[in-house]
Design a protein that fits this description.
- The structure is a single chain.
- The chain is α/β, with parallel strands linked by helices and 241 residues long.
- The protein folds into 2 domains: 160 residues, P-loop containing nucleotide triphosphate hydrolases (Rossmann fold, 3-Layer(aba) Sandwich), CATH 3.40.50.300; 69 residues.
- Helix content is 40%, strand content 25%.
- The protein contains 11 helices and 10 strands.
- The strands form 2 sheets. A 6-stranded mixed sheet has the order 6-7-8-3-9-10, with helices on both faces. Strands 2-1-4-5 form a 4-stranded antiparallel sheet, covered by helices on one side.
- Helix 5 crosses helix 7.
- It is globular and about 50 Å long.
């Protein structure tokens, strides 16, 4: 479970990224952070794994204040998927997937078996794609490897920052549908950043709409569709469509 309690973030230039945001993400659920560019979505995500620190408020993961937890240990227990996968270009696809298990001291046979399992899970041929470098993979294949890497050490929490944003529409929809099936099987806690309304409604159990650093509305897709909390929410839903 994740809790953000009255979290604020002010940058040195005086820009306010977040304004007293409070949000709870229950274990095993997917919450999408939805809103226009610059509304604080990615900052919220980075607060959870201590890539940035809050100016005010508290961030809790499984009841522990992240500011009091070793940052390296915290991040090794969190899967992280970014746009365009963010793979290490000098490592093969298999080696990319094995990065965290290697850091955790897993023996080679266990790392390889886990990589093979995850390649199958995300729909890649281990023998064919495992030895390839990222430059030798398509965009969709790189994104699948990025998802496999995030799941490698079986973390209970996965953070996803515009994970399908760089893909063409066909591959994007295909991976979105496959992600829905994966999350139903894996029961991970997922926080997803997106500016795509349809993606948020498809992938998430609950959607948190942000505007100008503030939380505007939280609810299921049906709740938000039926009763937008403000003119901004209604307008954003309409414009995005």
């Amino acid at each position: 479970m994740i809790e953000l309690r009255d979290v604020g973030k002010v940058y040195q230039d005086g820009h306010v990224a977040l304004r007293g945001l409070s949000l709870r993400v229950d274990a095993g659920t997917t919450v999408a952070l939805l809103g226009p560019s610059g509304c604080g979505k990615t900052t919220t995500l980075k607060l959870i794994n201590r890539l940035v620190a809050p100016t005010s408020g508290t961030v809790l993961v499984d009841g522990h204040d992240v500011s009091q937890v070793d940052a390296i240990q915290l991040r090794r227990g969190i899967g992280y998927v970014v746009q365009e996968a963010g793979l290490f270009p000098h490592l093969t696809a298999q080696e990319n997937v094995e990065v965290v298990p290697r850091l955790l001291g897993w023996p080679p046979a266990r790392r390889s078996a886990r990589a093979a399992e995850l390649f199958a899970l995300v729909g890649l041929d281990f023998d064919l794609h495992g030895p390839r470098y990222p430059a030798e993979l398509s965009g969709g294949q790189r994104q699948r490897v990025g998802l496999a890497r995030a799941l490698a050490a079986d973390p209970p929490l996965v953070l996803m920052d515009e994970p399908f944003g760089a893909l063409d529409p066909l591959n994007r929809r295909r991976l979105q549908r496959e992600f829905v099936g994966l999350k139903q099987r894996l029961h991970k806690t997922v926080v997803l950043v997106t500016h795509d309304v349809d993606e948020a409604f498809l992938l998430a159990d609950r959607v948190a709409v942000l505007s100008d650093g503030a939380l505007v509305q939280v609810g299921t897709a049906d709740e938000i569709r039926a009763a937008p909390a403000s003119e901004f929410v209604a307008s954003f839903l309409g414009v995005e469509r």
